[in-house]
Amino acid sequence: MKIPIILANWKSFKNPDEAKKWLEDITIINKLKPANYHENIILCVPFIDIPVLKETLKQLSQGLNFVLGAQNISLEEEKPETGETTVKMIKDYVFYIILGHSERRTNFNETEEMVNKKIKTCQDNGLKTIVCISNMQQLKSIIREFPSYKDFILYEPISAIGSGKIEDAKVSNEMAKKIKQDLKNTKVLYGGSVNAENVKNIVNKEFIDGVAVGGASLNPQSFWEILEYVGRKS
Ligand code: PGA
User: pTM here?
Assistant: First the structure.
C-alpha cells in the first residue's frame, strides 16, 4: 500500500524563534498521541529558519521524521549577487529545493528557462528538486530540457492555492496521470488548500503520491491532524 508523501511549505512565514516553537509543539502533540506516520516529512521553510531547525531536530528525539528543504535557490552556483542564496550555501543544510512555485513565477517573473537553470544547478549539487507546475506547458518545458527527470513534480492549480478549496480530486488525478505518462519515474504531489478535512479525497487517488500543504502547515495542530489521518490509513 502506498504511503503518501507529506510536504509542508511555510512560504514566507515564521521567524527562527517561531520555527523552533513549531517543531517543539508538534513534537509534544505527537508524543501525547503518536500520528503513526513514519515516513519522511519534507519541511520547506524560509532560509533564515533552516539552521535553527537543523539544530533543534538534532536535539529532539521526536518520533516524526522531518527532512529539511528550501523554497528557492539562486540561478548561479556561486556569483557575486547581492541578496541571493546560492546552492553552495545551502546544500549542507537541506535535501530538497522547491522550484518554480507559481508565486515566484507570477510575482518575481521566473521564466521556464530560469526554472530549468535552477533544476540543473540543484542536480549538479546533489539536491533533490520539487518543481511546481500549474499547467502542461510548464511541464513540457521541463521535459524538453530533462527528458528523464525523476524527482518530484508538484502540481498546484493556481485557483486552488490559498482559496480554501481543493481542485476536484478527479481532475488532479487525471493531471497526475498525464504527468506520469510523460515522466515515468517522477513522483507527483498535489498542492492547493490541502487541510485535515480534505486530504482524504486526494491521497486516495491512484496517480497522486502525496500532498504539499501551505496554510494548514503553519499551525502545528492542523498539520499534525493531516499526518494523523495519513498515518491511520497506512
Ligand atoms: P495552500 O498553499 O495550501 O496555502 O493553498 C499550497 C502551496 O502553495 O504550496
Answer: 0.97
Give the three cell numbers for residue 194. Answer: 490541502
103 is catalytic: no
Q: Is residue 225 flagged as an active site residue?
A: no
Tell me the pLDDT of the chain (234 aa) as tens digits.
689 999 999 999 999 999 999 999 999 999 999 999 999 999 999 999 999 999 999 998 778 999 999 999 999 998 899 999 999 999 999 999 999 999 999 999 999 999 999 999 999 999 999 999 999 999 999 999 999 999 999 999 999 999 999 999 999 999 999 999 999 999 999 999 999 999 999 999 999 999 999 999 999 999 999 999 999 876
Q: Which atom of ligand 1 is nearest to the CA of 162?
A: 5
Q: Who lines ligand 1 at CB under 6 A? A: 9, 156, 161-162, 191-194, 212-215
3-class SS at 82?
Answer: coil
Question: Catalytic one among 156, 167, 225, 228?
Answer: 156
Give the C-alpha distances (Å, rounded to integers) separating 87 from 78, 173, 198.
8, 33, 35
- Which has the closest alpha carbon to 182: 147, 211, 130, 135? 147
